[in-house]
Design a protein that fits this description.
This protein is 13% helix and 28% strand. By secondary structure, it is α+β, with helices and mostly antiparallel strands. It is built from three helices and 13 strands; from the N terminus they run H-E-H-E-H-E-E-E-E-E-E-E-E-E-E-E. The chain starts with 14 loop residues before the first helix and ends with a strand.
């Protein structure tokens, strides 16, 4: 896992995920791409949970090299932070919008920026998944045309009333059709790519 606290139990910590994976027999380790800008070849998956500062060019290069060899990625991005991974994702058919997702219909206790998702796109990833909460999320969009051999699919979306608010200085929570991204907007996208080596590279994005 990159750039996260594996021991913390607050909203930024990943200890619960680590505990679950450890019980299933996986070895979970923190990855410091600044100190060693190479991802181990035997890594089954690399998780990048909400970077709080931009990835350096050499760190992006390491992620790109890993994905190009069939590596699996789970990337989570938060509102208000330029991760440095946006161009990498764009080159793979996924646009990350510079907005914050609000949903007047499906939210937690009236907090429009805390979106509740109960239905998902069909995927083994979301099969039997319980309702989830998405806080301060950025919306995603699919490329108009997929690159050859690439499959992109929406995993989670807001309700029809949800939208991506672009002008963060505007404290009103009404949808502005002139600038905002109309819902339902995508919160998570899966990407799979066929390789000649019969490996698949997957990025699951929040």
């Amino acid at each position: 896992m990159c750039s996260s606290d594996l021991e913390g139990y607050d909203q930024d910590g990943m200890s619960q995920a680590k505990d679950t994976l450890t019980k299933q027999g996986y070895v979970v380790e923190k990855l410091n791409l600044f100190a060693s800008p190479t991802i181990p070849a035997d890594a089954q998956v690399v998780v990048i949970p909400g970077p709080r500062k931009p990835f350096l060019p050499k760190e992006v290069e390491a992620v790109t090299a890993y994905a190009s060899k069939g590596g699996r990625l789970v990337i989570s991005l938060v509102q208000g932070v330029k991760s440095g991974l946006e161009p990498f994702l764009t080159s793979r058919g996924i646009e990350v919008q510079d907005d914050i997702v609000l949903d007047p219909r499906q939210n937690l206790m009236g907090d429009l920026a805390t979106v509740a998702v109960q239905q998902y796109g069909y995927s083994p990833i979301t099969d039997k998944l319980n309702p989830t909460i998405w806080q301060a999320a950025r919306s995603l969009s699919l490329a108009k045309k997929n690159p050859p051999g690439v499959t992109l699919a929406s995993l989670a979306e807001t309700s029809d009333a949800g939208f991506g608010k672009v002008d963060l200085a505007d404290k009103r929570v009404d949808f502005n059709p002139a600038v905002d991204h109309k819902g339902p907007v995508k919160l998570a996208i899966s990407r799979s790519e066929e390789h000649t080596s019969e490996l698949q590279s997957r990025q699951y994005l929040v």
